[in-house]
Design a protein that fits this description.
heterotrimer; A alpha/beta; B alpha/beta; C alpha/beta; A: alpha/beta; 7-stranded mixed sheet; 4-stranded antiparallel sheet; 15 strands; 38% helix; C: alpha/beta; 9-stranded mixed sheet; elongated
């Protein structure tokens, strides 16, 4: 074989013709700027290539087949990455190569990308009851870190009060991301920039009377920042309705596969207040008119955000993040509509309660049993590892181990009552 | 029977014109909310058959979200139309988005990530159920270690900028562990990716940016003046975004090491030097690759991407956790002793790790060398063609270029009043992308072309012919070029409202509130 | 929209004749004698065509003959007696006569810009580059661009510096721009392409803020002329001068628009450092614009910080910053790599050399 299928100009005739056109003797001429002492004097030591496609498939399948996925085992794993149903249309659209292989074209030749992302933020806006939503950032962790930084820039303060239980990994990320400008506090006073509430929290608990926190924050001139999962908002009140100033979280639930953690993407939303909009470090897409009547154009809203540019101690970066997951979440919301979102919320709420009851009946101690839970709850056991090992033997991924005696269990609309009964029965057996 | 028509064209079909008669799809598609009809739905949702959970008033949603209501075909049709109004690598000679390394993403690799064995894998599964995924992580790490010469590589960052941030977080942790937190300055260069400065600032550093000297290289004398006991690190791209490889890179690294700082290599522009020169050989302590650039994973309209951080031995304890270790009992996860913690949830953007691994496996060492050499050949061939266009130039033309070039339309712009941005919009009328440069513009009226190994000689000829044509148009009728686009999904946008708080409409609801009936 | 137009018909004369500018009637006579043809009228016509093409309802108002009407055939012409050849006084008179327009365009160079400034324009102004020296911030990059920018003028304006060389000194062999003041120019918001990454550019306010955080107690800071150094004063809540040299100590203004002797006294009173902006497009930080910073004053300073955006440094194309105090020994003492603050928490080290070394 001469030319590699991915590299058209590897053929010697083409190489020669191109070198001749340039007037260069060899490709080595172009590397003249690299000192000899820095040149690698040997071939890279890499595995032998598999240049035929079927051979590559065989090799990859050999690796992939060592995995047992969540369609083969009964999985109750959540903790930030959730097994919601992914409609076939979501995969169809995000697999379109026009979307998949595009990058950062202008609003003309890539009009479709701009419109699809504008529609995504617009549908999120409806769900959240907020007018400004950004194009996705990396993940919900990042979105939360940025939302808190925005609150600090907005208020000119540097303390954040966490009023909820946060996953340890997420807390680790937040600490890192907010260091060294921002500190966590447990005292609410006029030096606090934001109260952060996550609902549902890491235990799936839906916070009660969140308006009281909003009022407390506002009484001290602080912002109320709320983290949530948008898939709950067909049934749960949108945080804006109880006083949230900034809402943030992850959109993996809205049409992304779990993909071993590869489906995460973050959102941040605010009201349409110029000063707050000025603090977004990420892109905002908006409608603009074109030279032709009745035509929608799109562009970046308030691109040269002067406040952001001036208050650079809080400056953040914008890079390649998770746009395709934004488009996909838009497709998901368009498919679901208001009824679908209500139904999925109701189904998850009732299955969660059913699972809590079933596991209590099976002899497990459910934490926060009197609270309303959405999708997740934890059980306390004497030996979490032993329980999970025992469930694994029955081909059940029983939950995420939070500690030696706490296991976090997740149920979604993908589960049936039978699935939960099977879990309960296995837990009962294991605890017996 | 229809009436007989006179022949209006003759055989054979005439040859194609020199330039493609492109027109982007124009569906004139409404906003999805305008397609909504009450009572329709796009997908069914299972009911639990259980009693409904009564929600107290303080947390119950009262108003129905005004999401659109469409049947499934209409969702599919709408989004398929929007997809057509978009140019991906699969559709265009995508050499115009320099610094982005737009290359072919092999289709077979998409099959692997859509496989349930990846797509339906939860990151917290028992280790024995994810050995295949962990092995791919481990194998790709070994490959990137060899390519960079570094001791270990983390695949956790979600993209290039996140990888830069992870590297800075490690630098900060390293100095702190050595009792040297007083090091509060980071040095970078004007032609390094601006995320280096931006990420370092987020991490609390003061930034010193070295400007290019008259030869286009970052001024080494300025570096000597800048370094000192407060120097935490040098963050540098090489070759820089000009496409010029800085031959004094080792001296830069040594100078920074001499004052106790670390040297961190932004390898966003690695495509032309794979197997040619390595980060470790120039003495770097840290480096990062963009898997969506050099290692072929698709750009996905702007992510998900993936980054990889390589570090020398002394920084291994600070890597983000967990890392994948190979043991006698299979692959396990471990957290380094002084880990900076999580950069993102779980292990990373697994689908892109899988794609990058499969891409390298299809190429091997020799194939990677071909990637580098052909990328460089293509770049120099395209430069040769572009320099024949009157009004186009290359600053520091005597310096050899590696995998990309930052060009200038300064002469053309001064003669015609047409700016580089406007040339790009008009070039798109022929079905290609085009990008100018990061800000500030050091090169006047810049454009940056990076023809990776994916494009053929004929592709490059076509791209150069398009730019030559547009440059000629700019001379003949500058107003026509300024009025572009003409062959796109939409016409010229008036952006005024986007900067006016009274008018801007970042969502449909904002648009309706400000400009409609809502 | 009413746009005023003033053409300096003799702008650009000196360049082709190798006379380093066209200021002074004797120079102009010499230029004409050397066969120069004024470009300004042609450039102005290009700008007017572009303007009226993109905004056909524009009313152009100008003065008769070579000072305007020749370049704008359909313009409203107001009466104004001008000398032949025209002088600075004619430009200033035209500025006054054209008050009441929405935007005043002029074709010329830095010298013309200075005359426009001296004429006291009420509206924003926009320069059509047609001179030998076009370093002032009020010029568009080309005549066509000026026409286009004018056609898009919405009323938003921002400050821009008017700089010019001291031409007598220039012809005598030494170079040095001088800041003469500021005018308001249209804010042109160019929508930039390819938003792959957002890095807000360094701003004058950001630079001033960074500069203020670096100020130390007990040090006398000598602020040179310019809008950037003035922004430092503003950030400190002080009314410093635009064109003069001021001295700040512990947040207080202890000398405003001081002369050399007074400055010398002040820097002798305690540790002192200079904070200077880059004047003009050639990279001068010490030149004729701030002669108060004399060799003996400089020898009393402990350090020097320069203020300027990355864009301004980029415009130097890799050339060094320049010092020309008139004393090679004093120049040599300040040469080397100086700290340039380019934004909040952003700086660079940049080479500064003696202008005589550069020549």
């Amino acid at each position: 074989m001469n030319a590699h299928p991915y590299i058209p100009n590897t053929g010697p005739a083409t190489r020669t013709a191109m070198l001749a056109a340039i007037g260069a003797a060899s490709i080595e001429d172009f590397y003249a700027g690299i000192p000899a002492g820095l040149r690698l004097q040997r071939p890279l030591n890499l595995p032998a290539p598999i240049r035929d496609e079927q051979g590559l498939i065989r090799h990859m399948k050999g690796l992939l087949n060592q995995n047992t996925d969540t369609t083969e085992a009964l999985s109750f794993l959540g903790a930030g990455c959730y097994p919601h149903h992914v409609p076939a249309v979501c995969d169809e659209i995000n697999g379109r190569s026009e979307f998949l292989t595009a990058y950062a074209g202008e609003p003309y030749e890539d009009h479709g990308r701009f419109q699809a992302l504008f529609e995504y933020v617009s549908m999120m806006g409806e769900l959240l009851d907020m007018d400004v939503v950004n194009v996705p950032v990396y993940d919900g962790y990042q979105a939360t870190g940025t939302a808190l930084r925005m609150a600090c820039r907005y208020t000119g303060r540097d303390k954040v009060l966490l009023s909820c239980q946060i996953l340890p990994d997420k807390l680790s990320k937040l600490r890192d991301y907010l260091t060294p400008d921002i500190e966590f506090t447990t005292v609410l006073d006029d030096s606090v920039a934001a109260i952060y509430l996550e609902t549902p929290d890491m235990y799936g608990v839906v916070a009660r009377n969140p308006r009281l926190l909003a009022e407390a924050a506002h009484a001290h001139g602080a912002l109320f920042v709320v983290g949530t999962d948008p898939i709950s908002l067909g049934v749960l009140a949108p945080p804006a309705s109880y006083g949230a100033d900034i809402v943030c979280g992850d959109i993996q639930s809205l049409g992304m596969h779990q993909s071993f953690g590869g489906g995460q993407a973050g959102f941040i939303a605010t009201h349409d207040e110029e000063r707050l909009v000025a603090e977004f470090p990420s892109r905002l897409f908006g409608i603009a008119p074109t030279a032709v009547a009745g035509e929608y154009g799109f562009g970046d809203v308030y691109y040269d955000r002067t406040s952001f540019a001036l208050r650079e101690e809080g400056k953040e970066w914008v890079g390649t993040a998770a746009a395709l997951w934004g488009i996909t979440a838009g497709v998901y919301l368009a498919l679901m509509g208001p009824e679908g979102m209500r139904e999925v919320g109701e189904t998850v709420l009732s299955l969660t309660r059913y699972a809590m009851t079933s596991l209590t009946d099976a002899g497990a101690t459910v934490l926060h049993p009197n609270e309303i839970h959405f999708r997740e709850f934890a059980i306390a056991v004497s030996d979490a590892d032993a329980l999970l090992t025992s469930l694994r033997a029955e081909n059940i991924f029983g939950g995420v181990r939070l500690s030696g005696n706490e296991v976090l269990i997740c149920v979604t609309e993908r589960h049936t009552r039978d699935d939960i009964d099977r879990l309960a029965s296995a837990v009962k057996g294991a605890l017996a | 029977m229809s009436a007989q028509t006179e022949p209006f064209a003759t055989m054979p079909v005439a040859p194609k014109p020199a330039l493609r008669r492109f027109h982007q799809a124009r569906w004139d598609e409404p906003i999805i909310f305008e397609l909504s009809q009450p009572g329709r739905r796009g997908i069914g949702v299972p009911e639990s058959g259980l009693p409904e959970v009564e929600l107290p008033e303080d947390i119950r949603r009262v108003n129905r979200p005004a999401l659109p209501e469409l049947s499934q075909l209409h969702v599919v049709r709408h989004y398929t139309r929007l997809s057509q109004e978009n140019l991906g690598v699969d559709l265009n000679v995508d050499v115009g988005q320099g610094t982005c390394t737009m290359k072919y993403s092999p289709k077979v690799n998409d099959i692997f990530v859509r496989d349930a064995k990846i797509a339906e894998l939860h990151p917290a599964q028992p280790l024995d159920s994810v050995q295949g995924a962990l092995e791919i992580y481990w194998r790709l790490e070994q490959i990137l270690k060899e390519i960079s010469g570094m001791s270990r590589v983390s695949l956790q960052p979600g993209a290039g900028s996140a990888a830069i941030y992870a590297n800075i977080a490690m630098i900060r942790a390293y100095h702190a562990a050595n009792g040297e937190s007083h090091r509060d300055q980071v040095i970078t260069t004007m032609f390094s990716h601006p995320s280096n400065a931006a990420c370092a600032k987020v991490a609390g550093y003061d930034i010193i940016t070295l400007m290019p000297d008259a030869d286009g290289f970052p001024d080494i004398e300025a570096l000597k003046a800048a370094i000192g006991p407060r120097t935490a690190a040098l963050l540098i791209t090489n070759p820089e975004d000009t496409g010029i490889y800085n031959p004094q890179i080792k001296e830069f690294v040594d100078l920074v090491h001499g004052v106790g700082g670390l040297a961190c290599y932004d390898q966003a522009n690695a495509n032309g030097i794979l197997g040619i020169t390595r980060a470790a050989d120039a003495g770097f302590d840290l480096c990062h690759f963009n898997l969506h650039k050099t290692f072929s994973t698709p750009h996905a309209c702007g992510g998900p991407a993936a980054g990889a951080c390589g570090v020398a031995e002394k920084l291994v304890p600070f890597l983000p956790g967990p890392v994948v270790d190979k043991t006698d009992n299979g692959f396990v996860l471990a957290t380094p002793a002084h880990s900076i913690g999580k950069i993102r949830p779980y292990l990373g953007v697994t689908p892109n790790v899988v794609r990058a691994y499969a891409w390298v496996m299809a190429l091997g060492a020799e194939g990677l060398r071909d990637v580098a050499e052909i990328a460089v050949l293509n770049n120099n061939y395209l430069m040769h063609k572009i320099l024949r266009i009157p009004g186009a130039s290359v600053p520091w033309a005597d310096k050899p270029r590696v995998e990309q070039v930052r060009y200038s339309w300064q002469e053309l712009s001064e003669q015609t009043g047409v700016h580089s941005e406007e040339i790009g919009v008009r070039a798109a009328d022929f079905g290609v992308h085009y990008w100018t440069s990061h800000h500030p513009y050091v090169v006047a009226e810049p454009f940056t072309l990076e023809p990776t190994e994916s494009y053929s000689k004929e592709d490059l000829d076509e791209y150069a012919a398009i730019l030559a044509h547009v440059a000629d148009e700019a001379r003949r009728d500058p107003a026509f070029v300024k009025g572009a686009p003409y062959n796109q999904s939409i016409h010229k946008i008036d952006p005024t409202s986007l900067d006016d708080p009274q008018q801007w409409s970042p969502t449909w609801r904002a648009y309706q509130r400000k400009h409609g009936a809502r | 929209m009413i746009v005023g137009l003033i053409v300096n018909p003799i702008a650009g004369l000196g360049g082709p004749a190798g006379l380093k500018g066209s200021d002074g009637s004797e120079i102009q006579q010499r230029a004409i004698a050397r066969g120069s043809v004024a470009l300004a009228g042609r450039r102005a016509a290009i700008a007017v065509r572009a303007l009226t093409k993109h905004r056909p309802d524009t009313i152009v108002r100008t003065v008769a003959g070579a000072m305007g009407a020749d370049a704008a055939p359909h313009a409203e012409v107001i009466s104004l007696a001008a000398q032949q050849p025209t002088t600075s006084a004619d430009t200033r008179a035209a500025v006054k006569a054209l008050r009441g327009v929405d935007l005043l365009m002029f074709a010329g160079g830095d010298g013309t810009a200075r005359d426009v400034l001296d004429g006291g324009p009420i509206s924003p102004v926009l320069g059509i580059p047609a001179g030998v020296k076009v370093y002032s911030g009020c010029f568009a990059i080309s005549a066509a661009a000026a026409g286009l920018a004018a056609s898009r003028f919405t009323g938003d304006a921002e400050e821009a510096e008017v700089v010019d060389l001291d031409e007598d000194a220039y012809r005598a062999g030494s170079v040095g721009p001088r800041l003469y003041g500021t005018v308001r120019v249209p804010s042109v918001r160019v929508r930039l392409s390819g938003r792959k990454a957002s890095t807000p550019p360094g701003t004058v306010e950001g630079i001033a803020r960074e500069c203020v955080t670096r100020l130390r107690e007990g040090v006398r800071y000598v602020l040179g002329p310019g809008t950037t150094t003035q922004a430092v004063g503003k950030a400190l809540g002080l009314e410093t001068s635009l064109l003069g040299v001021d001295v700040v100590l512990d947040g207080k203004l202890i000398g405003r628009d001081v002369a050399e002797a007074e400055l010398y006294e002040l820097v002798q009173g305690g540790p002192a450092e200079a904070v200077l902006s880059i004047i003009g497009g050639q990279g001068f930080v010490l030149g004729r614009g701030n002669q108060q910073l004399s060799p003996r004053v400089l020898s009393g300073l402990r350090g020097m910080t320069v203020l300027g955006t990355q864009q301004k440094l980029a415009g130097l194309g890799g050339r060094p910053l320049l010092a020309d105090t008139g004393d090679p020994e004093a120049d040599r003492r300040v040469c080397g790599h100086v700290r340039v603050i380019t934004g909040y928490r952003e700086s660079t080290l940049y080479r500064l050399i003696s202008a005589s070394e550069d020549a």
